[in-house]
């Protein structure tokens, strides 16, 4: 169907409403990764303490110890993850722009070779030689797009130049804290109640379900698949933490 039948406004609205990602969607990796790690980290502390308590014949572990170690791990790991994410993304960005500058210089200084290389890359994608030559010639008229094409297809490098690294790292930190706090809430709110650990297990399960639903809403995948994956990973990590606690 020819695009000439539709106005520029029609096409812009289609791209905006049907294919553009929401601001939350652009941070889906950081949200899911930070949240799952936050849940597992804090519940592992709780499960480890309970496992250790069970293994030493009813010895009492003070509530304050669970809270101190829980919050220390919660905020320490949240900061560590956010900073690690920031440094990794900044390194990736620097590498991308350094190679992009090199590619831009190549296009400017040795355009004939780059044009031949573009033809070759297009042929590798299945275009006939004459088609590839025509496409490469047209592409060379738009230097910005040409460089982006070479970055993606020659160097296999792709980076969202509009990405705000600080906000991305902040999304990791916030999701880690928000979801990681949930397993600690029973100990924080119920004091010395005898059913704290059971409630923490249920709270952790609820947090994992919430994360699975959030992942499904953002990614648009299968709800059942997302829930099963998140619950499975969280359950295995919690069981390992409890098992390690019983060894001590």
Could you explain how this protein is built, in words?
This protein is an all-alpha fold and 248 residues long. It has one domain. Helix content is 78%, strand content 0%. It is built from 10 helices and no strands. The chain has helices at 8-19, 28-55, 63-109, 111-124, 129-139, 143-153, 165-181, 185-189, 196-219, 223-247. Helix 2 runs antiparallel to helix 9 (196-219) and helix 3 (63-109) runs antiparallel to helix 7 (165-181). The mean pLDDT is 81.
Please outline what is shown here.
This protein has 248 residues and is an all-alpha fold. The protein contains ten helices and no strands.
Q: Which helices and strands appear, and what pairs or packs with what?
A:
Blueprint: H1 8-19, H2 28-55, H3 63-109, H4 111-124, H5 129-139, H6 143-153, H7 165-181, H8 185-189, H9 196-219, H10 223-247
């Amino acid at each position: 169907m020819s695009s000439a039948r539709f106005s520029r406004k029609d096409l812009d609205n289609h791209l905006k409403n049907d294919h553009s990602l929401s601001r939350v969607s652009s941070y889906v990796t950081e949200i899911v990764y930070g949240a799952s790690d936050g849940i597992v980290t804090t519940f592992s502390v709780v499960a480890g303490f309970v496992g250790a308590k069970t293994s030493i014949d009813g010895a009492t572990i003070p509530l304050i110890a669970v809270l101190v170690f829980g919050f220390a791990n919660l905020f320490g790991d949240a900061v560590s993850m956010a900073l690690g994410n920031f440094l990794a993304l900044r390194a990736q960005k620097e590498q991308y722009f350094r190679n992009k500058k090199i590619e831009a210089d190549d296009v400017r200084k040795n355009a004939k070779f780059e044009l031949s290389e573009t033809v070759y890359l297009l042929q590798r994608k299945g275009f006939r030689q004459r088609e590839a030559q025509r496409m490469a010639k047209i592409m060379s008229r738009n230097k910005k797009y040409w460089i982006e094409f070479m970055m993606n297809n020659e160097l296999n490098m792709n980076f969202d130049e509009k990405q705000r690294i600080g906000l991305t790292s902040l999304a990791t930190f916030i999701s880690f804290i928000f979801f990681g706090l949930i397993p600690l809430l029973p100990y924080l709110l119920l004091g010395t109640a005898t059913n704290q650990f059971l409630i923490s297990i249920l709270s952790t399960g609820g947090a994992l379900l919430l994360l699975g639903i959030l992942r499904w809403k953002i990614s648009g995948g299968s709800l059942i698949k997302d829930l099963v994956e998140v619950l499975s990973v969280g359950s295995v990590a919690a069981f390992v933490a409890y098992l390690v606690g019983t060894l001590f």
